[in-house]
Amino acid sequence: MQGAGKALHELLVSAQRRGCLTAGVYESAKLMNVDPDNVAFCVLAADEEDEGDIALQIHFTLIQAFCCENDIDIVRVNDLPKLAAVVGPSEESGEPRDLHCILITNPNEDGWKDPALEKLNLFCEESRNINEWVPTITLPE
């Protein structure tokens, strides 16, 4: 489990550096609608206070269904402040951004061979084998 958290941290940092990270529920939904084949990985994030947000939970359900239908691995993170510390504010505006959904995309047609992405894909596959379809990952300190 801790290895998956470290791999997710590495993947988020690497994807952001390469410009392959899309943050935000609406931005992610738009991207999935326009170019689903380019999405390599999905992260859903919510804190305890978000659990009562019905609209957000509906979005999560739709995103999860889309990811399952398109063979996109998906994980949950339950610590938005840690996630914000890794991803940071929007580069364009410097404003905090919606981190409830983050997509990692392939930067080109050849695909992106990132060791952290491969570790997470394996973690998700193992989780599905024990009927945990959207595993929760804890980011390292």
From TrEMBL:
GO terms for biological process: apoptotic process; cell differentiation; positive regulation of MAPK cascade; regulation of cell cycle. The keyword Magnesium does not apply. The lineage of its organism: Eukaryota, Metazoa, Chordata, Craniata, Vertebrata. Keywords: Apoptosis, Developmental protein, Differentiation. This is Growth arrest and DNA damage-inducible protein GADD45 gamma. Belongs to the GADD45 family. Involved in the regulation of growth and apoptosis. Mediates activation of stress-responsive MTK1/MEKK4 MAPKKK. One of its GO terms (cellular component) is cytoplasm. Pfam families: Ribosomal_L7Ae. Transmembrane segments: none annotated. Residues 7-89 form the Ribosomal protein eL8/eL30/eS12/Gadd45 domain. InterPro entries: GADD45 (IPR024824), Ribosomal_eL30-like_sf (IPR029064), Ribosomal_eL8/eL30/eS12/Gad45 (IPR004038). Undergoes concentration-dependent homodimerization, which is required for growth inhibititory activity and enhances interaction with PCNA. Interacts with GADD45GIP1. Interacts with PCNA.
